[in-house]
Amino acid sequence: MKIEASQDDVNNILDKYKTIIKSNNDTGELVFAGIPVMFSRAQFMSNIFSELEGIVGESATGILKKIGKSYGELFYDLLYDSQHSVLEGEKEKIFNYLCAETQAIGWGRISIEELSGKIIISSEEGMATGRNYSGQSQGSVDSYFLGYFEGFFSKLNKTPYHGTETECVAKGDKHCKMEFGTEPVF
User: Fold this and answer.
1) HSE-up of 37 (CA within 13 Å, CB side)?
2) How far apart are CA 26 and CA 12, in angstroms?
3) CA 138 and chain centroid, separation
4) What letters, b where the CB count within 10 A reaches 16 and e where it falls short, cover 36-49?
């Protein structure tokens, strides 16, 4: 099964966001179901990675992956709470929603496919950090997204998932590809 969101799926999520995103008058931040969100240019994630990489080196990958994982878990909980009756037991619908939501918020167009016990995410254009990374990286740079999807899939399947980015446009690959499974990746 390979899942990709249609433009209508993306537009449906954007329309829903328009009705439930509110501005907090005290802080000025956008709030989605009580959780602060930020819609910004994809360049933002690339800048964070580059700056952190300049300060802590290769540790930037682990730091951003850990941050992303907690947000992936949180998003799963939010999605489950708000869409439980629609999505319960419907992995294809959940994957479709995740594809559409990822594109709607500007992270990039992705597809999700389950093959041989693994979940594979591909982005032909590349994920947001990889697409906007200046220069060519020695390693994969989409660690925030890798952690995010690890957290989401772990909550979805009620078992720890581990991922690795096997291809990244920042390294010169043609697209970004992430693979997730239940076995630790070293």
Assistant:
1) 19
2) 29
3) 22
4) eeeeeebeebbbbb
